[in-house]
Amino acid sequence: MLSGDDATPSTSYRWQAVGLLERGEQLATLVDRFDRAGDAGRLVVVTGEAGAGKTALVQEFVTTHAAAAGARVLTGRCDDLFAARPLGPLADIARDVAGPLHDALARGDQGAAFDAFLAELAPASGAPAVVVLEDLQWADEATLDLVRFVARRLDALSCLLLVTHRTDLSDTHPLRRVSGALVGPLVTRVHLPPLSLEAVRTLADGSGVDAESVHARTHGNPFFVVELLGSESGAVPITVRDTILARAAQLPGPARDALDAAAVLGREVAPELLVGVGDCSVDAVDECVRAGLLVGDGTRLAFRHDLAREAIDDALTPLRRRQLHSRALAALGEDGDIVRRAHHAVGSGDPSAIAELAARAGDHCVSLGARREAAALYGRALEHRSVMDDATRRHVLEARVETCKLVEELDAAISAAEELVAMLDDGSDELALGMWEIELFRMYRNEGRGSDAAPYLASAVRRLEAFGETRELAHAVAQAAGALMVSGRHAEAIAEARRAWELAEACGADDIVLDAMDSYGCSLAMSGQEDEGFRVLADALDRAKAAASYLNVVRTANNWASTLLITFDPRSALPVLEVGLTVAVEQDMTTWHNALLNTRSDARYRLGEWDDAVTDVETVLAADVMSECNRLCTVVRIGEVRTRRGDPDTWPALDEALTLATQFGDRQGLHPVRVARAEAAWFAGDVGRAREEVAAALPLWDRDHEAWMMGQLAVLARRVGVDWSPPGDVMVPPPFARWFAGDWRGAAALWDERGCAYEAADALGDSDDVDDLRSALSRLRTLGARPRALQVERRLRSLGVRDVPRGPRATTRANAAGLTAREVEVASLLSRGLANSEIADALVLSPKTVDHHVTAVLSKLAVRSRRHVGAAAARAGIDL
Questions:
Q1: Helix %, strand %, coil % for the chain, to 5?
Q2: Which of 53, 76, 436, 814 sits most deeply, having the most CB atoms within 10 A of its CB?
Q3: 3-class DSSP state for residue 429?
Q4: Residue 806: count of CB within 10 angstroms of its CB
Q5: Residue 632, class by beta-carbon neighbours within 10 Å (0-12 exposed, 13-18 middle, 19+ buried)?
Q6: Dihedral, CA atoms, 279, 282, 287, 293, nearest 10 degrees?
Q7: Which pLDDT belongs to residue 807?
Q8: At what angle do helices 667-683 and 687-697 cross, to 10 degrees?
Q9: DSSP class per residue in 762-825
Q10: Local structure of residue 122 (DSSP, 8 states)
Q11: Rounded to whole angstroms, how far apart are CA atoms 22 and 193?
Q12: Residue 714, burial from CB neighbour count under 10 angstroms (0-12, 13-18, 19+)
């Protein structure tokens, strides 16, 4: 299965690679991309299940073509450790590349290491460089960052970057998020399918083994096939594991000790280390090589496949495994790789070693940007907090909070912060206690625990005021201003933001100044002073960019864009969001990347670009982790789009949205949910329920008015028969004012100016003018807004219009109203016989998301089996 580059290898180019049956097309693709890499770099992602032959394919390409062309080959591998080595593959490469790359890694400078690596791949005379990064399913976060970093710069490089990974990834695996960023004409995906029965027959020819039985038992997995065919008994064991263990059982005792040690030491090992840990001789190691269980290149030894290593490791008794890990830890010594030492400490079960080495390894991972691995290591260290002194425990807790926050493991971050606050509550460090109370407040709010959050903020402000006008107090007051702004208490937010601004300027805290400006500008704009508010926000964003204050860049971009959307200005919001998204991707700020995608989804929803809006929230849903705050935004958008399209399963999304919004308790979350629920009930003809939803939204606007949101609610209230209008001191925005005045065409013109496609069509739909109604109907059908279009059709007929243009036939309407653009893509791949996992790879979605789409497609096309999708789509007039 191939995708990517616009050209395919010549069909006349044939490979008959020995031992690589049914891999000729894939090998030819690698050669083709290598031949193109002189003009611009190419990235090829090679995927397949464990044992599919990914390494064999890459090695065949390297030895038969890259080496013959004189290309320099740089190879790095990821290891299956408790926590992966940060930039482990790059460290492998640095062993062969002296100079800046090696030096940057040695001092833990990720930025310098990335730049040095790019320099190795710059255009030069001769063949393009070939970089091989194997087994990305075990990659650390920094290595995944490296892949994205290089992928974004391929057009300026001269290299072929080959990366391999297994396809059996969980829905939350970090590689799924990275895979979504690897797109474009310079990226190709090569999938290795299982071997056919014919290929197994070829391999089994002359062995006397039943090829059909081998194929049935192995499902065509090349590694399993070779192992079974190599079984000395000639019989087919129940499992491949049995084959490997049976071969190992024939080794003499010292050789088996060496093999066990090799399994514990990992994918590759120096012979000298293996002899020491296995407490054996060189002859015992050689016996493993002669038996074909280990292979070597003279300097390193390895299992022929990691599946074999896993089988040997799984067979070890717990006591034997701990013994070998303890020996490995001792053998590595103080100069050994700290992450590998921590791995062996965990395996040894020694509490003191785990507490010390896991904490040190976590610090090392942080220095190289491997935050996810650092979070796991700090968590493992804290399991043995009883052997830590107070200073070490505090450091590990603080580091655990920071790393877990950055990768959206908020439950773990909150737990560590709670422990910190309890630890500091002895009065030993009141200033630090106040700051950690603020941190807990922020995290509680992000998880929708508002009632838990508020006391911590109040306590922090009181505690910090005792220290005078400090940076810490400015930070606390800025947080209070932000909380008031989000809650819609804009007059109080403006006052607190001004206070925080002044405090921060007095103590030279420029980053806190930017935080205060953010809240100040948003509250000004939402309380009616839009020009001044947006001027402050533009100034704040410019200052943040100039200072490379990345957190303030993404926060201000997101909040400014959100405020523009509250004032129904999606066109202005998009360029602001792109500024934030660029920084969030470059700095790998997962939480803010999700938040910005959700906000962009809102902008696209307002613009009537509903497919794109759904794509953005699907990307967030496919992320490895997600805060409750970001979850709320995704389900709100799904509910809104389904409501206006008339899609099925609207209410489950809206019910979940209400549960989450109620959990947060602020009107920023509750208002859009109540509006969507009222609309859904109104479209369904359930006016009573629509009135209940509007009535539930009215108390949100008892104070601190926001004219745009109130105008939206007032229109909806009027439609469903609720007697409510904004108070007299609220200046209703022009589009709503025109609507209240009965100037439907004028209202639509103003909505068109702002890019709000649905609102413009919706306003015309309330007109009594037939031409207006015909225009509304055409616009609504183009948007796919079926429920509102049906209302307009009925209105036209009630006015005596007989030639109301018909909508799509019932069969084709199933596509317009039922199948989204994404579902049409899924249906097309289903009709070609692809499995869900293959669809996930092709569309860069998580398997869970694909499962949902497949279920929806089958339901909407009213078929029980995926085999019937193509025929059902054809009957419905859907071109797949």
A1: 65, 5, 30
A2: 53
A3: coil
A4: 7
A5: buried
A6: 70
A7: 58
A8: 170
A9: HHHTT-S-HHHHHHHHHHHHHHT-HHHHHHHHHHHHHTT---PPP-S-HHHHIIIIIS-HHHHH
A10: S
A11: 9
A12: buried
Residue identified by tokens 């001769």 is: 126
Between CA 373 and CA 382 the distance in angstroms is 14
- Predicted pLDDT at 239: 63
CA atoms within 13 A on the CB side of 577: 24
CB atoms within 10 A of CB 22: 17
Among candidates 585, 615, 583, 622, which has minimal Cα distance to 600? 615
DSSP state of 192: -
**Core vs surface per residue 280-293: b (16+ CB within 10 A) or e:** beeebbebbeeeeb
- pLDDT for res 2: 43
CB 382 within 8 A of CB 416: yes
Where the chain has pLDDT below 50, the residues are 1-19, 234-237, 809-817
Task: Quote the CA–CA distance of 484 and 666 in Å, as a whole number.
Answer: 10
Burial track 194-221 (b if 16+ CB lie within 10 A, e otherwise): bbeeebbeebbeeeebebeebbebbebb
Burial (Cβ within 10 Å: 0-12, 13-18, ≥19) of residue 382 = buried
Q: How far apart, in whole angstroms, are the C-alpha atoms of residue 116 and residue 129?
A: 14
With contact defined as beta carbons under 8 Å apart, do 576 and 560 qualify?
yes
Q: Characterize the bridge pairing of strands 187-191 and 159-166.
A: unpaired
